């Protein structure tokens, strides 16, 4: 997605981009793997808080439906699919303004399956860059074990890490077992706590 497309998308949604261009420069860098090959990384959501976000909503890796959108893909709660819809419902029920949040993935590039140790280590370095680009960040809600493990690895391995509240909840994917009602309740309550930390 080029700059004109991003600006047009922001206008179409009736909201200004809040520092998403700075974050998209990070995403562009992450699209080149250490071995020089190109890989899929979505852009950041122009309807999010951008660099002004106070709450990071951290998922695992881009969903197949996001990958299918190709160059126009955005990591957003507006994406098709049940996980994005479940996140949007939980955020709205929790009363958390969308502009306070930034949704992203602990491993920003597309994966074939669950992230391995090498994915999480490379993702940890990218997550550190992202966190440093969010000066107002006050809380992280990590959805699923890989996201929680990734953010905790950042906080306990990065020499420059600052204390940051992290709330771990189950991933909201319908493939994540039969405890969907509990998943929703935990997500809503974690988002409310994150909102309090961000206020």
TrEMBL record:
Residues 49-185 form the Uracil-DNA glycosylase-like domain. Gene3D superfamilies: Uracil-DNA glycosylase-like domain. Transmembrane segments: none annotated. It comes from the Bacteria. Residues 1-20 are annotated as: Disordered. Pfam families: UDG. SUPFAM superfamilies: Uracil-DNA glycosylase-like. This is Uracil-DNA glycosylase. The lineage of its organism: Bacteria, Bacillati, Actinomycetota, Actinomycetes, Micrococcales.
